[in-house]
Amino acid sequence: MADILVYIELVSGQPTQASLDLLSGARDLAGTSGRVTALAVEDDSAVDTAKLGAADRIVLVSGDAKGYTGERHLAALSEAIERDKPGIVLIANSYVGLDISTSVAARVGQPLLAYCVALALGDDTLRATCQIYGGKLEADVECNLPAIAAVNPGVFQASETRGAGEIVQAAAPVFTARTMVQSTSSASDTGVDITASDLLVCVGRGVGDEDGVALAQELADALGAELVASRPVVDQGWVEKSRQVGKSGKTVKPKLYLAVGVSGAPEHLEGMRDAGLIIAVNTDANAPIFDAAHFGTRCDVLEFLPLLTEKLQGAIA
Amino acid sequence: MNIVVILQTVPDSAEELTLADGVLDWDEAPLRLNEFDDHALEEAVLAKEEAGATVIALALESAGDRVLQTAVARGADRAVKLIKEVPLDASARMVAPLMAEAARKLGADLVVTGVQAPGDIFGQLAPFTAAELAWPLLGGAVGIDCSADAPIVAQEFGGGRSAQISVTLPAVVGVQAARRPPRYVSGSKLRQAVQSASIEKLDVAAELADEPGKLVTLHSPHKTTAISFLDDDPVTAVDQIVEIFRQRGIVGGGRG
Ligand SMILES: Cc1cc2nc3c(=O)[nH]c(=O)nc-3n(C[C@H](O)[C@H](O)[C@H](O)COP(=O)(O)OP(=O)(O)OC[C@H]3O[C@@H](n4cnc5c(N)ncnc54)[C@H](O)[C@@H]3O)c2cc1C
């Protein structure tokens, strides 16, 4: 079996959940004979290695830099690949993963399979199913080993781990820095806390314009719910950023998630797939949101929204 | 400063995508400008307006002239069509050497393009192009401030985390979203661009890179949840939803 290197993404020294999930996935994939290495690039916080017990070996790349730069992590990961020659490198398809997975594949001259939702190892090959076209299609792909896979969040689940494996300290990578962190921020936490609400009405681009958003707001008010939105609706400036759900927004787990005019792209589903009850309204019968929803209707949101608002106002009055 | 914006047309995933023998039927595929490239163009034009720059829109010949004409109508100074026979389904890895050579020939200080395209199974164009050029890459960008010598790129990391990163040019930036929505182009402005914009042709010597991975087949996703479809008529659907709300205590009986 091939040895697997897992790139561990850190936030203030803590491995992200997606990285821990991936580490457990690597353990299963490697079987009993393959060795799993977790590689984390240190910054100015101490790395919590206790959580990395699924790895046989933990490589900590030295550094005390403030914040993440792609070029430093790219150099560290490339050096590790060239030194350790793993059969497979797994990277979580987070923002950082999106930033470095392709770059590292190009740097070390290996194939990359991106947006993987399933992985299987052959003798000398890696096979994967990749989620593309906003989740509307899946591609079965394969490549020869050694290879790199960028794996979507939620594909694997972290399991109980034994104690931490051997820890190896690696030297800081050698590279000429052309980027420098000027400042970092972790707060979009002004405004409403949508994670605290049990009932959410989510508007997607299918509502058309700000008038459509206003109709959804009326429905949210009638239901006693908070209004939330997909990224394009926020990028349009129709709804504030603190109400965005998904990869670059918030992760929510309400009792009810009523999605109107939302296609259900993987980056959106990442933020709401665990809602208790998902109801989707979308004219496209093939929209991926219907794969995550419990109930769905293919009617036009602009007809649907005022009707439901009116009905609820009547029901509640 | 020269900002080269790479624009790609891609199958529109909001429309029906037809498969033929396990691959996309490109003859039937409705094509549109990759939405992240649309934001990249807007960010480049914003940077030009704020700090002064020449914005050069670059597209493969197969993207068609309209994409480049629209870019000019939206503020690009030059429009360049890359002349090379490229299969419609060529991956980002394959076309990156062409884009890199074009960027060099156009004297790019900064190359901007979308952070991803919807069919990027084997990786994205911005990092492959950066690797070809041996320039630094900044992905997930939500703003580029070119007013200083070393531009400052706002990079997003999800979960509300972000950073301001300064970069020594030349560099490649993968844009997630522009600081403001891509500007609307009126029909008259577009007609004007169609009549007046001259589209330059650029030949490159670089060859398409080999694809190290193989697409076996494309298919619809396997369903993971069993959805119950309600009626397509909104009046009936609304009645059904209110009933579901009642059963679950969401309305009429207090929230559960
Ligand atoms: C790194 C990265 C991070 C991202 N982070 C996020 C994130 O945090 N959150 C997020 O949401 N997205 C995120 N995205 C964007 C994501 O890929 C999708 O582009 C986005 O989720 C699509 O939003 P949408 O569903 O509103 O729009 P679309 O995909 O355009 O869907 C609109 C839907 O409305 C339907 N529709 C149209 N008209 C009607 C009508 N009259 N009635 C009913 N239905 C109608 C259409 O059939 C379509 O399915 C991210 C992307 C990247 C690359």
Automatic annotation (TrEMBL), chain A:
GO biological process: fatty acid beta-oxidation using acyl-CoA dehydrogenase
GO molecular function, one term: flavin adenine dinucleotide binding
Limits of the Electron transfer flavoprotein alpha/beta-subunit N-terminal domain: 4-183
Keyword Calcium included in the entry's annotation: no
Sequence positions that bind FAD: 205, 230-231, 244-248, 261-268, 282
Cofactor: FAD
Name this polypeptide is given: Electron transfer flavoprotein subunit alpha/FixB family protein
